[in-house]
UniProtKB/TrEMBL annotation:
It comes from the Bacteria. The keyword Signal applies. This is Beta-xylosidase. It comes from Streptomyces gilvifuscus. Keywords: Signal. The lineage of its organism: Bacteria, Bacillati, Actinomycetota, Actinomycetes, Kitasatosporales. Residues 1-28 form the signal peptide. PROSITE patterns: PROKAR_LIPOPROTEIN (PS51257).
């Protein structure tokens, strides 16, 4: 048997809910969104073009998938050149999908360096000597330092593959360019690497089981204990972890209701200083009286799943010139956890921008107030996520905690509110809210 880890993740199920609102808004940059910045750029056309370097202005924006990461997280960066300084260096019209952009995003503040970004080979047709269209490039970086980290547009290159392979590199004239986005990184939660394994998964009452552990504090006193559901039994023993954080000890198990075994440092069990539970079953070997028959059955573990009451939500209309809250209710989500193991679950959601007639409403304008309910008799208790912004980064709708035995049936709901800017152009806007169960 491999090590029993403190947390087990299960397969994700995706649910997409389309959200529509009839409204409008002249969209300046909403709070939390990327900010367009202008910066002087020096571009060098291909030699074959026979034209001098171009000194112009680039308009660009930086966006991130997670504005509040923890140290150790990987952040996805999107660098959008809204208006390039350069244009098609030749009189030849360029067809669609022949441009491949690459570039750099400059990090500053608590963490410095550069993030390499690249875009797909995709573009609208470009007329001869016409302006290059807007394009986006993405890349990732790992957060290594807590604090405020700034992101600024860096140098970029436009490669075209048509008749000839040509490059138009553009550099920031006075680096760094203005800050377009800022993220706030926090220290990550310490990782609990403690793990245990048993030499067997079952035994008769009074039998001993060997518990081996790793990742514990060197020299620490470790308690070995039986579990019956979420309660600790009277079966206990102690061992001392070696200088390498490992131990091996024996625990005598008498309680016939035992479902698992744990090991922990300190005076009582805690997720932060413990490992397990490792599944263990006591084999009832009580003799069958004469004239009697012993009956047994098996309970089979199931799956973690979710379903939705529907796949669309019509939010209330708002007036052009007034804007405000466009409200509605999320279609009820039912979660069924029939795994019968120690792992809880988390149901999260994230939303796209709301697109409409020539404009959009930023994803960060959608907020929710979650609620959840637990069906009577369920071993776990559902906890609603915090009220607040959903956005493209996402938020938690509902969850249950880890435990010795988890499971049950649950329903999750939320009141939705989209903050529509006052002068959003009239029309219908829609976005997609994706729910992930893990």
């Amino acid at each position: 048997m491999g090590p029993i880890t403190r947390r087990r993740r299960w397969a994700s199920l995706l649910g997409a809910t389309a959200l529509a609102v009839t409204a409008g808004g002249a969209l300046a940059c909403p709070a939390g969104a990327a900010t367009n910045v202008d910066f002087a750029t020096h571009c060098i056309p291909p030699a074959v073009a026979g034209i001098p370097p171009i000194d112009g202005t680039t308009t660009a924006a930086i966006a991130v998938d997670n504005p509040t990461p923890k140290v150790g997280d990987t952040v996805t960066v999107t660098y959008t050149v809204v208006k390039p300084a350069a244009s098609n260096p030749t009189a030849i019209a360029l067809p669609a999908d022949i441009m491949t952009p690459t570039g750099k995003v400059t990090l500053g503040g608590a963490q410095t360096g550069a993030v390499t970004v690249a875009g797909p080979k995709k573009n609208d047709p470009v007329p001869g000597n016409g302006a290059f269209p807007s394009f986006s490039m993405t890349g990732t970086f790992k957060v290594t330092t807590a604090g405020s980290i700034t992101l600024s547009p860096g140098d970029y290159n436009i490669h075209t593959s048509y008749i000839l392979e040509l490059d138009t590199p553009c550099t920031v004239t006075n680096p760094p360019a203005p800050t377009s986005a800022t993220i706030t990184a926090t220290d990550s939660t310490p990782v609990n690497n403690r793990a245990i394994q048993l030499d067997k998964a079952s035994g008769a009452p009074g039998a001993g089981v060997t518990v081996s552990g790793s990742g514990f504090t060197a020299g620490a006193t470790v308690t070995l204990a039986g579990r019956s559901g979420s309660s600790q039994t009277a079966d206990q023993a102690t061992v001392t972890a070696g200088s390498d954080g490992k131990f091996s000890g024996s625990l005598t198990v008498n309680d016939k209701t035992t479902t698992g075994i744990v090991a922990y440092e300190g005076s009582a069990w805690s997720d932060a200083l413990g490992a397990g539970p490792a599944v263990y079953t006591v084999t009832d070997n009580t003799p069958v009286p004469d004239g009697s028959q012993k009956l047994t059955t098996t309970v089979k573990a199931g799956t973690l799943s979710m379903s939705q009451a529907g796949d669309s939500v019509a939010l209330s209309a708002v007036d052009f010139g007034k804007g405000g809250a466009s409200t509605g209710a999320l279609q009820t989500v039912t979660v069924k956890d029939f795994r019968g193991g120690p792992a809880g679950w988390s149901l999260t959601g994230k939303v796209t921008d709301f697109t409409g007639p020539g404009a959009k409403i930023d994803a960060g304008k959608l907020s929710w107030t979650p609620a959840c309910a637990t069906k009577a008799g369920s071993p776990s208790t559902c906890k609603a996520g915090s009220a607040g912004t959903v956005g493209a980064s996402g938020a938690t709708l509902a969850s249950t905690a880890n435990g010795t035995l988890t499971g049950g049936e649950f329903t999750a709901d939320a009141q939705l509110s989209l903050d529509v800017p006052a002068f959003t152009p009239p029309g219908s806007y829609s976005g997609v809210l994706t729910l992930t169960l893990s």
